[in-house]
Design a protein that fits this description.
The complex is a heterodimer. In chain A, 78% of the residues lie in helices and 0% in strands. Chain A is mainly α. Chain A has one domain: 3 helical TM bundles of succinate and fumarate reductases, CATH 1.20.1300.10. The mean pLDDT of chain B is 92. The longest helix of chain B has 31 residues. Chain B has a single domain, classed as Fumarate reductase/succinate dehydrogenase, transmembrane subunit (3 helical TM bundles of succinate and fumarate reductases). Chain B is an all-alpha fold. The chains are: A mainly alpha, B mainly alpha.
Chain lengths: 128, 124
């Protein structure tokens, strides 16, 4: 920083963890994780454009326990970020700031994200 | 023409924050719709082989929505990563270097994605 070391306000390690705070941090963490997923998604598109051989490489790399684990984490981050993103858009519109409402919407967000993730993989297992 | 001293010292408003804020929301809404569309199709296509995926991309609707999905997600990711870096990286030169890197990688991913979708859609 140009003006040298300034005194800093207390940060994460000072505060007791609570639900709305965890979701706020989770939104950023899942967003960062999703950019890694975005790289995988683009890799899949490039491989598909490259032909059957390069597509087979993607399938070989992803069709194992570790690959499925990454994909599961990717979808969990996706559904959480989407659900919590809707919560943020509602806030942007000016609603839901009351402390108790924010806590309840956090619980709904977690339930929706978890539910959609499980539903997605159940449907994939049924279809595939 | 005079620049405010705060701006010169990189401490003032760049007067473009609201535009970025709005772009983040617009791409968020676009992402919601496009990801929902892709997820539904991904479930329907689960377990598909190479040829089936390629056939799906031959639909103009698929190609168009996939290009929008690539652009919207890459743009949204770039804004979000920039926000995180601006909040946590305090070393000025390091921060600028990371932001330049994020922008270049986002542009590279978006371009690679769009070119790939076009190649699959228009390929034989």
């Amino acid at each position: 920083m140009a003006q040298g070391a300034r005194p800093l306000s207390p940060h994460l390690q000072i505060y007791r963890w609570y639900l709305t705070m965890a979701l706020s941090i989770g939104h950023r963490a899942s967003g960062v994780a999703l950019t890694v997923g975005l790289v995988l998604f683009i890799w899949w598109l490039v491989a598909l454009a490259g032909g059957p051989e390069s597509f087979a490489v993607v399938q070989a790399v992803m069709h194992n326990f570790f690959g499925w684990l990454v994909l599961f984490g990717f979808t969990a981050a996706l559904f959480f970020h989407a659900a919590n993103g809707v919560r943020h858009l509602v806030w942007d519109a000016g609603y839901g700031f009351d402390k108790e409402v924010a806590r309840q919407s956090a619980i709904v967000t977690l339930a929706v994200a978890g539910g959609l993730t499980i539903l997605f993989w159940l449907l994939v297992l049924i279809v595939a | 023409m005079q620049a405010a001293i705060g701006k010169v010292r990189s401490r003032g408003s760049a007067r473009s924050g609201a535009g970025t804020w709005k772009a983040q929301r617009f791409t968020a809404i676009a992402n919601l719709l496009l990801v929902l569309w892709f997820v539904v199709n991904a479930i329907a296509m689960a377990g598909s082989a190479y040829a089936e995926w390629v056939a799906w991309f031959h639909s103009p609707l698929t190609a168009a929505l996939m290009i929008l999905l690539v652009l919207s997600t890459c743009y949204h990711a770039r804004i979000g990563l920039q926000e995180v870096v601006e909040d946590y990286v305090h070393h000025e030169i390091g921060k600028v270097a990371i932001l330049v890197g994020i922008t270049l990688v986002a542009a590279l991913l978006a371009t690679a994605g769009v070119v790939s979708v076009l190649m699959i859609a228009l390929g034989g």
